[in-house]
UniProtKB/TrEMBL annotation:
Pfam family, any one: Alpha-amylase
Keywords assigned by UniProt, alphabetized: Hydrolase
Originating organism: Psychrosphaera algicola
Region annotation Disordered: where it falls in the sequence: 126-148
Protein name, entry field: Alpha-amylase family glycosyl hydrolase
Length: 236
């Protein structure tokens, strides 16, 4: 069971899992930082700063590993809408790649991935709250039906239960990896590489029996080269 605490402040969020004794909460801090890095093109060191607060969630029955990672929801709206607003001159292919990269972070960083319905069908929405509550069935709401959906020629006036949608297919690959490798679900996370500008963010997920996975993200639009030796970043 998890609760919704509408705050990006890790002191506030962690209060509910420790003092409040909730098993977990939606990680709004995660959503805000992912949006900063992959939509607003801020440095990947913002993600390192986020994870440096994970110790606040540690107690006898909770941890940051149980937080609910998400990139879209009914309150803050859809990440696709944020990308459209932040990158008005980018083409759809670039925005889809940023969208997929953000969701890969949701799956493979510490925490539990939570997909907001319709993201897998390329829904973009009209902002937060009521602007992000499109129908999966054919909609009769003009405010939704004039939206451009990512990766498809459909609109929300159509039925949108398409397992062949390219975003749906990519999420399925992420889910297969996530369920197929325990280190990606329960492994201890260590930050290895960050940048104060768009670029590399690398983490290690470590599990028993020396089962280590290196997960590397690149938020820049150009290729980046990893150093020969990744150094563990000491988080305060």
């Amino acid at each position: 069971m998890f609760g919704e605490v509408f705050s990006g402040d890790t002191d506030v969020l962690s209060h509910y899992t420790t003092t409040g004794d909730m098993p977990s909460v939606l990680d709004f801090a995660f959503q805000y930082r992912v949006k900063d890095v992959f939509a607003s093109q801020k440095g990947t060191d913002n993600l390192a700063d986020l994870f440096s607060h994970d110790v606040k969630y540690e107690d006898h029955n909770s941890s940051a590993d149980l937080l609910m990672n998400f990139v879209s929801n009914h309150d803050v709206g859809r990440l696709a809408y944020t990308l459209d607003q932040s990158l008005p001159n980018a083409d759809e292919d670039e925005k889809i790649q940023r969208f997929l990269l953000s969701n890969a972070m949701m799956y493979f960083a510490r925490g539990i991935p939570v997909i907001y319905y319709g993201d897998e069908q390329g829904f973009t929405g009209d902002g937060g709250d009521r602007g992000a509550r499109e129908d999966m069935m054919p909609s009769v709401t003009p405010e939704y039906n004039d939206n451009n959906l990512y990766g498809t020629s459909k609109t929300t006036a159509d039925d949108n239960f398409d397992p062949s949608h390219p975003i749906y297919q990519q999420f399925a690959k992420y889910a297969e990896l996530y369920h197929g490798h325990k280190a990606l679900r329960q492994g201890k996370q260590t930050v290895l590489q960050t940048s104060d500008e768009p670029g590399i963010f690398a983490i290690k997920r470590s599990f028993a029996n020396n089962e280590d996975y290196i997960v590397v993200f690149n938020s820049a639009t150009e290729e980046k080269t990893l150093p020969n030796q990744l150094k563990v970043i000491q988080l305060n």
